[in-house]
Amino acid sequence: MIYKKFISELYQTFEQIDIYKLFREFHNQPELVAEKILKEISGEKAKKMFREEIDYIIENELKDFENILSILRKKEEIIYYERSIAALSCVLVFWMWDKKIKLPDESLSRIIESILLGTLGYRIIDMYDDSGMMGSEVIYVGNYLIHLHEKIVIEVFGAEDSLEVVNKYFKLYAEVEFAEKKNRWIGCPFSWEDPLKLGYKAAPFFSIMESLGKLNGMTETQLKNLQTGMTAFAAVLQMLDDISDAKDDLSNGIESLVMSGFYKAHPRGTVITEVLVEEFLNQEGLLKFYETTDNLFSISRNCFKENKDDLLLLCTELYNLNFNKNIEVT
Questions:
Q1: How far, in Å, CA of 108 to CA of 154, rounded?
Q2: Alpha helix positions (H), the chain
Q3: Residue 58: how many CB atoms within 10 A of its CB?
Q4: Distance of alpha carbon 179 from alpha carbon 184, whole angstroms
Q5: CATH number, position 70
């Protein structure tokens, strides 16, 4: 796997970066800290190579679905997720090396492949459910990719250690999606008091992280902190995704937490426009959004601090700093 070899080189480069020096130099410009780190470790090159790895996997292992996957991968939603998965894979492997988690090269390559397959599979099904994208046949492609993801996790970590973990996270994912789809055109089934649930959509990544944590000998408390920290971080990403896709989601009957109450104010049949969304998402709504995401960042930060997990803490701080730099709350 060429990509795995490349991120090994990235990690060696990453170890040489003086993070503290960067923070001192750009303490009031957090986006430049992230930019400098990504430049040093060739982040864009990593994403390009990851996409080439996907080409290879589809050509050699998913030949029967090559045509439909080729069509799907040209869609902006999938391109965005592939780029995100590339960054996610780097974080995962960096974390493994930082924790000195030993796995054969072949197993590590397969874990990276499973992240791709699982995340892509869930995303394809979600896109079809939300917007009716393409024909219903994409559901079977998505389910097959999820099955391959789970198969790889079980083979790498063993059924005894991973089957329960895989089932746990699939159940959490299914509960969230069921609640969302059951309430289509009715309203948001989630509450501002419990936004953590939104993070359960990252099921494939969580099952791998917990399996690795168990392999590393983490205690139950450490595993719980790992799960909660990742869930909080993923919930922030989901809320950001929801606010950027608000118009499309509402047009397809999905009222996300950031737009909760919209259908009460605007009954079904209302022509949903960007102006209408912006008017609904007023100053008060944006403030609530900011306060909630800020609290989620705090939950994630505290969990990683308690686990003394510097790498995941660094990722959280960089994202939080850049988030605060770019959002406007007036």
A1: 13
A2: 2-15, 19-25, 30-40, 43-61, 66-72, 76-98, 105-131, 137-157, 159-182, 203-215, 220-244, 246-251, 262-265, 274-280, 283-306, 310-326
A3: 16
A4: 9
A5: 1.10.600.10
pTM assigned to the model: 0.84
Q: What is the pLDDT along the chain (330 residues), one digit of tens a residue?
A: 555 666 666 666 666 666 667 666 766 665 566 666 666 655 566 677 777 777 888 888 888 888 888 887 887 777 776 777 777 777 888 888 888 888 887 888 888 888 888 888 888 887 777 665 567 788 898 899 999 999 999 999 998 878 999 999 989 999 998 999 899 999 999 999 999 999 998 877 889 999 999 999 999 999 999 999 999 999 998 998 899 889 989 998 999 999 999 999 998 888 999 999 988 988 788 889 999 999 999 999 999 999 999 889 888 887 887 777 666 544
229 touches 299 (CB < 8 A)? yes
* Ramachandran angles phi, psi of 205, nearest 5°: -70, -40
What burial class does residue 252 get, using C-beta atoms within 10 Å of its C-beta: 0-12 exposed, 13-18 middle, 19+ buried? middle
The count of C-alpha atoms lying within 13 angstroms of the C-alpha of 328, restricted to the half-sphere facing its C-beta, is 2
Query: How many Å apart are CA 224 and CA 89, to the nearest integer?
Result: 21
Q: Which two tokens stand for residue 211?
A: 């399996």
How many other C-beta atoms are found inside a 10 Å radius of the C-beta of residue 156? 21
Range of the domain at 80: 2-326
Tell me if 10 sits within 8 A of 41, measured CB to CB.
Answer: yes
* Two tokens, residue 270: 């209302």
158: left (phi over 0), alpha (psi -120 to 50) or beta: left
Distance CA 233, CA 297 (A): 6
Within its chain, how far is the Cα of 11 from the centroid?
21
As for how many domains the chain has, the answer is 1
